[in-house]
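Project standup — Tuesday

K.O.: blocked on the structure for the chain from last sprint. Re-posting the sequence here as requested.
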Amino acid sequence: MTSAASGLGLAVLLSVGLGCGAATVPEEEPEAAPSQRIQALEDPNGLATNGLATNGLATNGLATNGLATNGLATNGAFANWLNEDPEVRAELMKYVIACAVPAGQVRTYTNAATGVTYTWNGQLGLTPQWALGHAATEVEEQLVSACLAAHANPYGLHVNFSLLGRNATNAVIGYTSQELATYNVREACFFGNLFRNEGLYAGNDRNWLDPDESTVRGCGLSRTVIGTNPDCEPIYRIGFCSSSLCTLDPSGLYYMQCKMGGKTYRPVTTRIQASDINVCGDGVCQVTEQCGKGRGQARTSDNCGVDCGHCP
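H.V.: unblocked you, prediction finished:
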């Protein structure tokens, strides 16, 4: 699919002349200050959190109702696409706008068929030209795709995280020393392109999880899973964000590019808090842990009798 006909019709949705309730787009928008990103990341209601239900980005939202859909670059086609599954697809649009549009801007859309008006808030501003209503470039497609993958988890739980990298104009996504100190665990890299049916990929940006560790962020940070994880489709696990696949920025904090199948992608890199890695044996039965099997006192996430009791 060419960039001019990119999925979701976002270039039309963000256009001043949509005529369906679209917000006015300023000609220039300054990049969000790092302090704004910190506030948004730490706000449990902010959009730099996971919190998508299992029928959201992790499954239907990306796998079957995602961005690689033809014919959405028109008002009528976008309305048809939205009305096929309005709850899931409006949720997906919330994250698309959060990834693409700068903080402080909103995009609204009134569905002529239902009279419902949707309001979506910008946050990260990864795609400045697309946010102004222009056709998305291929790099912008890649960044929105990677950002969506970074927000997906199969548990439907909100987990704040730090997103690092460079936007479509190669500007560094703002961060502060406070952000790095708070989100002090390297997590994962995400890349790909849903708009062109090129898939989504994720790899560990740290060592494997230990047998007693688990996290709801399992689509990005894993213990041993390489390949397709049914709970995270269509994200494909590549193992590690190794030097053979991805190139680190000189700062060492994030990846500048990743390659797959001879194609180069603009990735995003994520960090989480240490408290978001669950440990079997801490006295709390977490959603990522399972009851103990047999008579032993195994301390692995899938056999955590010490926290979750023994299976009936």
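K.O.: great, moving the ticket to review. The first helix runs from residue 10 to 13. Residues 1-74 have pLDDT under 50 and may be disordered.
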